[in-house]
Amino acid sequence: MLEGKTVLLGVTGGIAAYKMPNVARMLKKLRCNVHVLMTANARNFITETTFETLTGNKCLVDTFDRNFEFSVEHVALAKQADLVLIAPATANVIGKVANGIADDMLTTTVMACTCKVLVAPAMNHNMYHNPAMQENLQKLMRMGYLVIPPDTGMLANGDVGDGKLPSEEALLEYVLREIAREKDFAGKKLLVTAGATQEAIDPVRYITNHSTGKMGYALARAAMRRGAEVTLVTGVTALEPPMFTEAVPVVSAADMCREVMRRAPQMDVIVKAAAVADYRPKEAAKDKIKKSDGMTSLFLERTEDILGALGQKKQEGGIHAFLCGFSMETKDVEENSREKLVRKHLDLVAANDLNEEGAGFGTDTNVLTLITREGARKLERMGKEDAANEILDEIRRRMEAKEGRLGAAGKPQG
């Protein structure tokens, strides 16, 4: 995901420095070229050898270290860098960077960088809220630095408050949002539905399906990394919503329909990846239905057809979003999915066959066929993150083709 990218990690003298070797390891796992620059005080918490072992690059501390290949090292690194992450960032280093002081390898290199710089403050709660610190952070933000808000929790001295360095996973996600993907969905509003709905039988039981939400969450995450403003309308799942997205939790098909339809007019793209229950009990019992020896009948009715309603709205001009639906079949996959595409006025259907190995519920992979009115393209088995990007690539191509056929006034050309 980060192959060909170079990230500079600036590690300063805070107790949270212990988290940074894992950040370096995770970046390397994504094939990133990682260079670590430490302040002299950071040596009190972690050693250069740790970072050198994990990154394969010399860890730089001393501006005048002669033990490296000849070059103006801080300038050379600054030219290579696609992103700088200073974490943990102490009050001292934040003050230096905010006020143009460059007196060690880290601050000198940052001064020479033209790429985006992320700063993750980590310190005592009272230090973080000191007016001088807040003024320095505001100054950094005015200059275009991105300040990562600290977490709240127990700090090194036992106090509880904000000032805690976010988790390694969160820091990695900040990096990925900035440089993992081209921002080809920047300025676009994208809504994704995910997960299963639950239709109550009584206060204890409900009708649902096997959906885990993995595909929809992968789509939301991928779209966010490509610059979209993402709203995730999610049924019940065990997953944590992706960072930097607006998560709207729902339970039933009716809940999901309400939340989707009221947001639809503002969207540029809607991807319906949720597994919505097709039926619900005609009446949900107010009290738990007790077991009996005789036969029990459950009368069902159809739930809201959210995708069909969206397609109808688009036909009537009430919404203008690109509509992508999902279709899970056990036979005649392409034929049934194409019928769904036409009947519901969709632009794209991502279809999969439940019988295919690596497809279906609960897996980390998928085997999709992307179906449009012009044809079908079957994808090989791949991880759901890769499948999500294949779907977004297809959406992007078709949106660009449509926009290319329209003039500035939105009228067909030629």
Describe the structure.
By secondary structure, the protein is of the alpha/beta class. It has 2 domains: about 5-180, Rossmann fold (3-Layer(aba) Sandwich), CATH 3.40.50; about 190-280 and about 300-405, Rossmann fold (3-Layer(aba) Sandwich). Helices cover about 35% and strands about 20% of the residues. The protein contains 13 helices and 21 strands. It has helices at about 20-30, 50-55, 75-80, 90-100, 105-110, 125-130, 130-140, 170-180, 215-225, 255-265, 305-315, 335-345, 385-405, and strands at about 5-10, 35-40, 85-90, 115-120, 145, 150-155, 160-165, 190-195, 200, 205, 230-235, 245-250, 270, 280, 300, 320-330, 350-355, 365, 370, 375-380, 380-385. The strands form 6 sheets. Strands 12-11-8-13-16-17-19-20 form an 8-stranded mixed sheet, with helices on both faces. A 5-stranded parallel sheet has the order 2-1-3-4-5, with helices on both faces. A two-stranded antiparallel sheet has the order 6-7. Strand 16 (about 320-330), helix 12 and strand 17 form a beta-alpha-beta unit. Helix 1 (about 20-30) packs across helix 8 (about 170-180) and helix 9 crosses helix 13. The chain is elongated. The two termini are about 40 Å apart. The relative contact order is 0.08. The model is unreliable at about 405-414 (pLDDT under 50).
